[in-house]
Amino acid sequence: MSDMTLAQIRTQVQGMLDISDGDIPNAVLDTFIRQGYNAIVYSEKRWPFFETSTTFSTVGGQSDYSLSTIGTSITQGMREIFALRTDGDVCEYVGRDLGDFSNPLDGLGSGSPTHWSYWGDSVRFYPTPDAAETIYVRGIRNPTAFPSTLDGNANNVAPDLPSPFHPLLAIYAASRAYLQQEDPTMAAQYDRQFQIELDNIARRYA
């Protein structure tokens, strides 16, 4: 299955509703499509197609690193971290309270990190790094916004999803469009179709 662009998704929605271009403004259709896109990308915590890896460097004497700092090289930014390691060790995750209790920040210990905790979108290393060191990161990136209001060529852009998901955006948008037109029966029918097809496609990526 080939990718569908925003313009193609709009056309498919219009065909489902048997309406002409302009009967529902593109801005309204795009809002429905965006809602469907977000419903898909946030329906699972760990979609494999959003998995990513990167590296960053510690700073001597600095324990805490924000998620945005760690994901600087990822265009969309990091959404969640699953694993961290140095050249010599896989860093073990610990809860923030246990990490701080076992490795008080006012202690004198520092060195290559062996443990990490996560709280408030911030990673804390134990012990505190004593020098610049490369940290290897595996995690989940944020999805690319769709449709993007910042892209002047948005009509020709495809969703940041595998192509089997693309027709589902039209189904979702059709459901919302029928609801807007005060046809709850058709809206419910398309909503059920969206949920069924999302469940079926999601199993391919489980």
Architecture overview:
With 206 residues, the chain is α+β, with helices and mostly antiparallel strands. It contains six helices and seven strands, in the order ααββαββαβββαα. The chain has helices spanning 6-17, 26-41, 67-70, 96-102, 166-180, 184-202, and strands at 51-57, 64-66, 78-85, 90-93, 115-119, 122-126, 134-141. A hairpin with a 2-residue loop joins strand 5 (115-119) and strand 6.
Write the layout of secondary structure elements.
Blueprint: H1 6-17, H2 26-41, E1 51-57, E2 64-66, H3 67-70, E3 78-85, E4 90-93, H4 96-102, E5 115-119, E6 122-126, E7 134-141, H5 166-180, H6 184-202
Parallel strand pairs: 4-5
Antiparallel strand pairs: 1-7, 2-6, 3-4, 3-7, 5-6
Question: What is the N-to-C succession of helices and strands?
Answer: HHEEHEEHEEEHH
Tally of separate helices: 6
- How large a portion of the residues is in β-strands, by DSSP E? 15-25%
Q: Low-confidence stretches at least 5 residues in length (pLDDT < 50)?
A: none
Helix content: 25-40%
- Secondary-structure-based class equals alpha+beta
Mean pLDDT: 92
What is the radius of gyration? 22 Å
Distance between the termini: 19 Å
Please give the largest β-sheet. 7 strands, mixed
- Placed side by side, the strands forming the largest sheet appear as 1-7-3-4-5-6-2
